[in-house]
């Protein structure tokens, strides 16, 4: 187990109807004016926005609305939010939504205290050291933004999607009511579960060997998600399964699944190769849902790199799927690892996720543009489990155009 620093300061208020206590909690902490950040209408249609506003009104906390945040939030929206914060004297940022809304709110929270442009934090010109306080109401379990030190923003002008990290913008309080997620479309639910599993896998395959206490937490989270997802897809109002997914999604990305696995004691475990590869896809085409892109890219990455450390993949196969090689021959090891990767991808597909790049609407000829932006973001080499060159990245992308269950022929690509 490597040295590590674990920090998770967020207060979680979990359960039925918890959003109705937001105003009281905000007033108790001395906040006077909140910026309510949300997306394109579902929180209005569901009545959730009205419940949050009523709670704030009852506690005497003024509020300003900032609506219309899209999936893969764009930096221009962040700049507009910063303008409102400064103009209205906001002292609390209150996103109601999933990862995109919360990430936009995070960027507003630290960007409002920065003298330069907020994109400075996403291109390496500035580091986050301070942010306005954040309360959040989670509506889409997926990104884990309700407790993470991560923030990802797109810049359409340069076709970039980049992240920054900082403990300063971890939400102060997260309100998590599984009932809010009953109305989520099946596709969104499935994409969210895929993202959660990817967050765990990025840490599992960090280039560090076994850390059994952390590995057991990680494998348990994946198994829980794989058990709960079919339940909610069959019965969207299964409260206990929704609660399992919501809580597991937070634990998947608040760093507990990476303790002792990072190469830097104060850093995050893993090289985040699959996320890096996927971000370029959803930056190239912002209609691509992040989880759907990961469902395609992550198994392709696994198939490309597993030989770098077969023992780590064998442990994953055993702990998650109860798969073991029949003997210690190279062929048996490959069969066991391949079977585990196939099982993982089959789970994604059974939830309704895509399997190939073509299903995402991408073409082989798009890869030149994708590789160009990947190189601008990551440099010549990136990754921890196996450092990837741009040639490696291209090979992974190209392999993901083929269904691994079919022969890699021109017909299969088509």
From TrEMBL:
Residue ranges occupied by any Alcohol dehydrogenase iron-type/glycerol dehydrogenase GldA domain in the UniProt entry: 9-178
Query: Sorted alphabetically, which CDD domains does this protein's record hold?
Result: BDH
One GO cellular component term of this record is:
cytosol
Q: Which Gene3D superfamilies match?
A: 3.40.50.1970, Dehydroquinate synthase-like - alpha domain
What the entry lists under InterPro entries is as follows: ADH_Fe/GldA, ADH_Fe_C, BDH-like
- Which controlled-vocabulary keywords does the entry list? Oxidoreductase
Any keyword Transferase?
no
Q: Name one GO molecular function term.
A: butanol dehydrogenase (NAD+) activity
Domain Fe-containing alcohol dehydrogenase-like C-terminal: start-end pairs: 189-401
Record's superkingdom?
A: Bacteria
Look up keyword Acyltransferase and say if it applies.
no
The name this protein carries in UniProt is: Uncharacterized protein
């Amino acid at each position: 187990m490597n040295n590590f620093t674990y920090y998770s300061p967020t207060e979680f208020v979990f359960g039925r109807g918890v959003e109705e206590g937001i105003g009281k909690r905000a007033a108790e902490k001395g906040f006077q004016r909140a910026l309510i950040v949300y997306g394109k209408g579902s929180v209005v249609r569901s009545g959730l926005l009205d419940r949050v506003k009523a709670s704030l009104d009852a506690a005497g906390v003024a509020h300003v609305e900032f609506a219309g945040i899209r999936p893969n939030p764009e930096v221009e929206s962040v700049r507009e939010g910063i303008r409102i914060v400064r103009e209205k004297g906001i002292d609390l940022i209150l996103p109601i939504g999933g990862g995109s809304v919360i990430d936009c709110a995070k960027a507003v929270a630290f960007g409002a205290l920065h003298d330069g442009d907020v994109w400075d934090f996403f291109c390496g010109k500035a580091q986050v050291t301070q942010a306005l306080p954040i309360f959040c109401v989670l509506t889409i379990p997926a990104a884990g933004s309700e407790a993470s030190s991560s923030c990802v923003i797109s810049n359409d002008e340069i076709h970039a999607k980049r992240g920054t990290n900082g403990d300063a913008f971890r939400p102060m309080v997260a309100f998590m009511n599984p009932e809010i997620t009953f109305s989520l479309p099946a596709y969104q639910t499935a994409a969210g579960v895929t993202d959660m599993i990817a967050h765990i896998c990025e840490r599992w395959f960090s280039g560090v060997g076994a850390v059994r206490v952390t590995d057991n937490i990680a494998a348990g989270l994946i198994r829980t998600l794989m058990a709960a997802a079919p339940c909610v897809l069959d019965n969207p109002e299964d409260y206990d399964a929704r609660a399992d997914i919501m809580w597991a999604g937070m634990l998947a990305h608040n760093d507990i699944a990476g303790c002792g696995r990072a190469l830097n004691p104060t850093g995050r475990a893993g090289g985040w190769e699959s996320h890096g590869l996927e971000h370029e896809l959803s930056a190239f085409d912002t209609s691509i849902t992040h989880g759907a892109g990961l469902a395609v890219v992550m198994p392709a990455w696994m198939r490309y790199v597993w030989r770098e450390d077969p023992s780590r993949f064998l442990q994953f196969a055993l702990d998650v799927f109860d798969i073991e090689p029949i003997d210690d021959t190279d062929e048996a090891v490959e069969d066991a690892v391949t079977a585990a990767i196939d099982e993982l991808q089959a789970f994604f597909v059974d939830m309704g996720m895509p399997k190939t790049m073509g299903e995402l609407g991408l073409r082989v000829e798009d890869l030149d543009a994708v590789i160009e932006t990947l190189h601008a973001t990551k440099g010549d080499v990136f990754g921890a489990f196996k450092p990837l060159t741009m040639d490696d990245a291209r090979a992974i992308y190209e392999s993901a155009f083929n269904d691994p269950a079919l022969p890699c022929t021109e017909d299969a690509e088509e």
